[in-house]
Amino acid sequence: MVSAFENAKKQIDNVVTLLRSDYPDKKAFQKAIASLKQPKKLLKKRLNVKLDSGKTKSFVAFRSQHNDARGPYKGGIRFHPEVSEDEVKALSVWMTIKNAVVGVPYGGGKGGVIVDPKALSKTELERLSKKYSEFIAPFIGPWIDVPAPDVNTNSQIMAWMLEAYEAKVGHHAPATYTGKPIELGGSLGRTEATGQGGVFVLQAYSKVKRLNPRRTKIAVQGFGNAGFWFSFLAACAGYEIVAVSDSSGGVYFPRGYTSKRLQKLAEDKRSLGSLKKVSTSDKKLKFITNEELLSLDVDVLVPAALENAIVKDNASKVRARAIVELANGPTTPEAEEILLKKKVDVVPDVLCNAGGVTVSYFEWVQNLHGYRWTKSKVNEELKSVMVQAFDEVYEEKRNKKISYRQAAYVLAVRRVVDAMLLRGEL
Any idea which residues carry the catalytic annotation? Predict the structure, then answer.
């Protein structure tokens, strides 16, 4: 099985030689790199939750706090059957890198619970959410660690977690959690932020590569929040979304989906794979597997589901000219080597999906100030951050003649190491 945490460490190692000459004190630099390859703190506990039946069930929960040299730990909480210690450690590393790439003043953290939330009732989910918040309460806060939603968690779950945290500390502290409902201090534009940020990066990439959106075919693997909003907003911007998929399978439409049609797909409560059981008069609509989607002849492939979607065994089948990573860690280092040899641009997750944490940062700022921004201001500020981050990564890539991922990591690792040195941590 591919270890996400080992992949995260390899990605750091991959830029060490590019940075070493910048630091006269080699010993301190190596200490910093070693520190970046382990979380500062890993929290782990079994949570005992009362079920509606009256029985008690235990769930294993984690919180990885990776690095806080640039600011409070920041990262989401996911509820998924495949959550593991390895995964949350990797994701916390990527959050540190991601926040440094886009320049928001946070470190990296990540949390999760091993659970299938679909198997729980609403009241059971609320109890689990509050129990998790009580578990991490002594280790979080607006200036310590700021959690947010991730896979299978949402604004309602953040509301429950905030309530449990505030009950523990005895006062209001809305800036402790981001991704909250608007009524509890959430930010306008947060729901679509990851997808919107990805589209801003796609547009910046299109500009340097001189791509015409109307002639740019895109396939999106993953039709959750990030994948849907990316697809919808890219279609609104004129790009051709020719395929989308979820865990059950996908649909391929060579003529391209309109934003309205994508919205209709998202509103349909059935899985995309189950749609083939419904008769359709559109003979050009083709049902495909996730593996088939990865090998479509498109201009841009967007993995927007879970990590390790593109691995050594399927990388050679990828026919896209560019990959825009919307998921966390969707491409393994071995797969990326194959893709780069094929001259495929891989625009990394730590840049492409940073829209979510950027708007979470905006939410945190609004909570600390007690002031709400308009949606247009949120999107204007998000575009500014994402485009500037892409331009900086592209400049580093061009100057050093390295990959987009290496360029992003050079910028990020340098910023984190510099912060650690300035603090005298090493």
Answer: 110
